[in-house]
Fold this sequence. Notes:
Layout: E1 5-9, E2 13-18, E3 21-26, E4 31-36, H1 37-45, H2 52-63, H3 67-83, E5 87-91
Antiparallel strand pairs: 1-5, 2-3, 3-4
Helix pairs in contact: 2-3
Amino acid sequence: MDNQKIYLKNPSVVCTELEDGAVLLNLDTKYYYSLNETGLRIWQIMDECRSSLEVAERLANEYEVSVERARESVERLIGELEKEGLIITKKGGD
């Protein structure tokens, strides 16, 4: 992933939190996706942090794991979210 990319949630996606994670519904495609607890936390952190590194640093602090390990998880999930159209990518300077 590119540190210069900014990730924004697709406004057409609705998140419903569950006991053990969440379900994301893309209102455009009518497809839904499930997130585990960590995936939900990444989704929540994306409200305040826009780059994958910022999200990973916050996750590393909260879960007491290395930033590198957190970053692998964040980038894997962000790649899936982007592929499915659940998040929108912008360049950092835009």
